[in-house]
Prior knowledge:
Helix content: 25-40%
Shape: globular
Low-confidence stretches: none
Strand order of the largest sheet: 1-2-3-4
Distance between the termini: 25 Å
Radius of gyration: 11 Å
Strand content: 25-35%
Amino acid sequence: MPSTVVRSFKYAEESQTLLIVFQSGRRYEYLDVPAELIQELRGAFAKGEFFNKRIRSRYIYREVGE
C-alpha cells in the first residue's frame, strides 16, 4: 500500500543520511540515522507512521531543494 506521507526515501550509508521525499514534494535530509533503523523503515507496512514515530523530531534535519 502506498504511503500517504512518504513518497520515497533514499539512504546513504556512508554518511548515515536519509533523504525523505514527502507526498507534498518537499525533501528533507535527516542526519546520523543508523542503518539498522533504515532496515526497519524498509520493512514497515506503514512507512509514514514509522517515520513519524521513529525518525521525525528525533534526528537533525534540513530541507533540501530538488
